[in-house]
Description:
Blueprint: H1 3-18, E1 24-35, E2 40-48, E3 56-63, E4 71-79, E5 85-95, H2 96-101, H3 107-119, E6 132-138, E7 152-162, E8 165-178
Antiparallel strand pairs: 1-8, 2-3, 3-6, 4-5, 4-7, 7-8
Amino acid sequence: MDKTLFSTLFLYYLIHFTHGKRGFDIYLNEVNCTSNPKFVHTSVCFIDKAQYKQGRLFLDFLIIDDIPKFSISLEIFIIRSANEKFSLINLKNYDGCAFLGEKSETNLVNIYKEILAKAGELPICPLSKDLKLSFKNLGIDADKFPPYLPDANFSAVAEFKVNNEFCYLVQLDGSVVQKRKFG
């Protein structure tokens, strides 16, 4: 193959398939929220698929009592065929105040924080009684991920605890779907 033709095709590939828009979409399919009424009251927890093809998450909740410190357990995993789970991230009892305030060494945690910050204001510790937290129109930007992800289902589970007592849980299920098939 002529070097000029090869170079042109290679540049076209780089510009068209790796710059800006990814060759896949990330869909939010289902969300479940559970809260301990001692700490949190959930008023909104749903995914809007009517207005947004890929789904957008909406969450509103109210802090019932002062929360000086809390911990977060975050697990994100890919669900393979036959419901096999492949863990992408598994944080256990991570300091919630550090999560809100510091950049993590884990890139996926930083992506998660950035997604939350775009959808609402991240609070600072301590969390005060009657603090209302709202995250609206939360979607996942495919450009934050590698240029290629295979078709897959995923699940993200975030559990919040206060003094090792259950406070709040969000389970989000979604999928990665290719925009175009090659072959």
